[in-house]
Amino acid sequence: MIAGKFSGAADLTAPFEGPSALPVPSAVPTTNAVSDFLEWFGDLGTFSWRVMRAAVTPPFEFRELVRQLDEIGSKSFPLVALAGAATGVVLSLEARYSLTRFGAKSLLPAAIVFSVIHETGPIITGLVVSGRVGAGIGAELASMKVTEQIDAIEASAVNPYRLLAATRILACVLMLPLLTLASDACGLFMGWVTQALVEPMSLHQFINSGFNGAGFNDFLPPTFKTAMFGLIIGLIACFQGMRTQGGAAGVGRAATSSVVLSSLFVILADVVLVKLIIIFFP
Amino acid sequence: MNTIAQAETKREVVKVEGSAPVIIVEDLHKSFGSQKVLNGISLSVKRGETLAVLGRSGTGKSVLLRIIIGLEKPDSGSVRIHGQDIAGLALDRLGEIRIKMGFLFQHAALYDSLTVEQNVAFPLQHHKKEMSKSDRTDRVRNLLAEVGMEAAVAKMPSDISGGMQKRVGLARALALEPDILLLDEPTAGLDPISSGEIDDLVIKLQEEHHMASIVVTHDLHSAKTIAGRLALLNQGNVVIEGSFQELQNSDIEFVQEFLKHS
Q1: What predicted TM-score, i.e. pTM, was given to this entire model?
Q2: ipTM for this prediction
């Protein structure tokens, strides 16, 4: 459906494009960059609080949420599935070569399964979605901002944090784990196909061998950590889009910064989440 | 009878109801960085009255409207709508006041992913949830007929002209039957015929709905056609406020210069 500066809003329109845009040289610019960096985080915090408050208070925008679930979920599926499948093929080829060298070829199915469900599936899904959805949300909301459509929503007494941001962020949170499952499934299937082409093996045999010794702790935490990726992608893309200034150039900058920042924060979050999963789900 | 004479006659018919102003702006100040945009503006508008705010580009006319509807916050001063100071109101409480206000943006700001019909239905879908789908469709069709756009229901905003977009924007602004109408440059960028049509439309709507209206414009012809009272802004303040005749009779140098070049 429809894609400001809002009343009661802090100034989210500062020119700072995110941490990646920090200028470096000389003492004074560095000080400015640090204050811009802190201001960006402060604005992001304020934005997050407003979105959270809007998300938990009625009226709820179910129709827009369903539209976003379709937009973010089903329309990302082909790309995520393709990326997952390609990863499965590459993993199978690389793992076969490496494991054969070390005389551990029998571990190939397990190596593929654990690599895919533990890390490559979730992170590939996170990065693919941050590229497709992050750019889409960032550009759509930025375009709405510079053409005063977001102001028009607010002037119509509709809360744009609820209608535009909360629905998109929630859709990202809900769809990322499901897309990860799709990516995992495609990756494992194509891993098996690649393996079977070299050395015949049934899918049943591949799955049994691969999942031998694996438990829910190997599967659920890595899959559901992608809900956090979804939160990061949705939040940063909405934030960058809704604080845009400067016409078509601003829209371009918002789309770029949405992808760059959400990808960066997804990778950083992955580092932390992997450590936490190892601690809490050994 | 020419358009202005017709407008004068029509305005006499419009009754300025009651004595209490619906919109009261007091000592409004607003700066963007070091640039002072509004410097102590005070205005008031009653129900059934149209005030045109004139001035050179960049004198803060649009900012004034955005502050009145709460899209910008003033540095100091107050805006009271129906006696309620809107400064510091939470978004949802401000929303209750905004429901009574219609706003036409300078470039119409139609939702580009929705059809003309869906654009006008948008406020109704969100604020008249008890309204049945058929009633809503009827209401939208009536609004579009009122602005002469009933033939464009299924078109996208990108498929209609700028003047048509403003008509649709007007229909959307009127959807919730507001008692305050704010128009930001309703004739900017339009040819003289389209401008005249928009002017006539605004006068007709004002007659039918008896709203308190503020029209921001730099088009003097449009202002004296639409409004009974004009306020001329310069350097963030009201230089003169009164009828077009009073502006003409003023000996203030800026007023004469503005009228001469308009």
Answers
A1: 0.85
A2: 0.87
